[in-house]
Design a protein that fits this description.
Blueprint: H1 3-22, H2 27-34, E1 39-40, H3 41-47, H4 53-65, E2 69-74, E3 80-85, H5 87-121
Antiparallel strand pairs: 1-3, 2-3
């Protein structure tokens, strides 16, 4: 058995899985929302436009499972739960911020390329 090939296959699988998670519709928005600091469930629902409570629950559980956020049960009245990014989550948020900056920087160029392609660039 070739260990190099096996290790590379496992790495590719891990990369594919994580890019899929980050590419999910709500992940980026939830991470961006939590980047400003710890928040309760209903705060996140209000800030992430269009997300259902069920979808937010799924997204938070996935991010918690991956170690990107912490879930803390508050002993306040009424009791609640607060979510915050871990250091790993903040690391992801920084890369997402860089991707957003790249997108903003190149958005006009990309749009021009799309228009050119749509108008005359099709083979």
């Amino acid at each position: 058995m070739n260990m190099t090939t096996s290790k590379a296959g496992a790495e590719c699988s891990g990369i594919k899985e994580m890019l899929s998670r980050v590419g999910e519709r709500w992940t980026v928005q939830v991470v961006a929302t939590l980047h400003t600091g710890p928040q309760r469930f209903n705060e996140i629902v209000r800030k992430v436009n269009g997300i259902s409570q069920q979808m937010l629950t799924r997204t938070l559980k996935s991010l918690e499972r991956d170690g990107l956020l912490d879930r803390v049960v508050l002993t306040s009245s009424p009791p609640g739960v607060e979510y915050s990014l871990t250091s790993l989550g903040y690391s992801l948020a920084e890369h997402l911020r860089q991707l957003a900056e790249w997108t903003i920087t190149h958005q006009e160029r990309i749009e021009r390329n799309r228009l050119e392609y749509d108008n005359c660039g099709q083979a």
